[in-house]
Amino acid sequence: MKCYVCAKEGKETDAVAVCVACGMGTCMKHTVRKDVDVWEGSYPLPSRKLPTRMPRMLCPDCSNAFGEGK
User: Fold this and answer.
1) What's the average model confidence in pLDDT over 15-24?
2) Sequential DSSP letters for 39-58
3) Which residues of 15-34 are buried (b: 16+ CB within 10 A; e: fewer)?
4) d(Cα 18, Cα 59) in Å, to the nearest integer?
5) What span, in angstroms and rounded, lies between the C-alpha atoms of 58 and 19?
6) Is the peptide bond before 44 cis (omega within 30 degrees of 0)?
7) pTM here?
8) Residue from 68, 32, 37 nearest 51 by CA
9) Confidence bin at 46 (pLDDT 50/70/90)
């Protein structure tokens, strides 16, 4: 798999991650790692935030979209 962002720029770079939100392959330069809170519980609402955060790999577009709510 190749990096989608690099491909749009006319470059060919191997992807090292897949965006957890949209599935886009991204290279080291375009992969954004975000550590997100983890909640324990069941429907309808999670009941307790766990002390450990979980890493998530995102493309630049999805990282920006998630960041807009904060």
Assistant:
1) 96
2) EEEETTEEEEE-SS-EEEEE
3) bebbbeeeebbbbeebbbee
4) 8
5) 4
6) yes
7) 0.76
8) 37
9) confident
